[in-house]
Amino acid sequence: MKLGVIGCGKMGSALVEGAIRSGALQAEQVTGCDPHPDAAKAFAAATGAHVVDTIGAMEADTYLLCTKPQHAEAALGWLPAKESRLISVAAGLTTAWIEARVPAGVRVVRCMPNTPALVGKGAAAFCLGKAANSTDAEAARLLLGSVGLAVELPESLMDAVTGLSGSGPAFVYIMIEAMADGGVRAGLPRAEALKLAAQTVLGAAAMVLETGIHPGALKDMVASPGGTTIAGLAELERHGMRSAFIEAVHVAARRSAELGGA
């Protein structure tokens, strides 16, 4: 694969760094392009990849579109008319929207990564455009999987993915902050409370992923009769914590559909 990265910001850099770190790509297989010289320079320094001034100067068979959605149309207009693959992480842009703006022969894959990809703990989904095939799916899985979890889903579910894993990190950050505040209220120093809260969330997530046990069953393992945990859980239920998270994901998914013109 010869990868051309269009937009050398944090997400583009994270995906390329992860692919190089995992051995899926070598730096010499990657070329970056960004209208902002500082971003291009930082991308080159972080990845060891070559950078060019224009998209047309890239020698690539696969393009990774990492621009902001409002800048995507202008960038797509510079793609060369040849058989190639375009993997888009531009939020909200459907495969049909992209396909209408690229030359014939460009196969499109739409992805929705999230910001924990920056630390190699991402959760991403991808879907295939009309002309894309299983080889294109594997290319997307290779890139996204190098910085976390990658799953293939129908495009009709991409707004739900945006509401859950795309927006979800912000919901978890609020939870970590609130748990740390609770620790401070109980007498812990702020720095230690924050570390303990963040590590607790990290450990609980790892238990779900690594054991395969349903989170409800894991919760029951911690909540002993008449103990501290069940008292705390009862308080969370009294304040509607569960329904608040359900509604937050639902509203974020609905907003994603609105932004995408669905």
Could you characterize what this model shows?
There is one protein chain. The protein has two domains: 3-158, NAD(P)-binding Rossmann-like Domain (Rossmann fold), CATH 3.40.50.720; 166-259, ProC C-terminal domain-like fold, CATH 1.10.3730. Strand 2 (30-33), helix 2 and strand 3 form a beta-alpha-beta unit. The chain is of the alpha/beta class. Helix content is 52%, strand content 15%. It is built from eleven helices and eight strands. An eight-stranded mixed beta sheet has the order 3-2-1-4-5-6-7-8. The mean pLDDT is 95. The protein has helices spanning 10-22, 37-47, 69-76, 95-99, 134-145, 158-166, 168-185, 190-211, 215-222, 228-238, 241-259; strands spanning 3-6, 30-33, 50-52, 62-65, 84-88, 106-112, 122-128, 148-152.
DSSP summary: helix tally:
11
Distance between the termini: 33 Å
Beta strands, count: 8
What is the CATH domain class of the largest domain? Alpha Beta
Radius of gyration: 21 Å
**Category by helix and strand content:** alpha/beta
Report the biggest beta sheet as strand number plus sense, adding barrel if it closes: 8 strands, mixed
CATH superfamily of the largest domain: NAD(P)-binding Rossmann-like Domain
What does the average pLDDT come to?
Answer: 95
Q: Can you tell me the number of structural domains?
A: 2
Helix content: 40-55%
Widest sheet: strand ordering: 3-2-1-4-5-6-7-8
CATH architecture of the largest domain: 3-Layer(aba) Sandwich
List key phrases describing it:
262 residues, alpha/beta, Rossmann fold, ProC C-terminal domain-like fold, 2 domains, eight-stranded mixed beta sheet, 11 helices, 52% helix, elongated, oxidoreductase, 6-PGluconate_DH-like_C_sf, Pyrroline-5-carboxylate reductase, pyrroline-5-carboxylate reductase activity
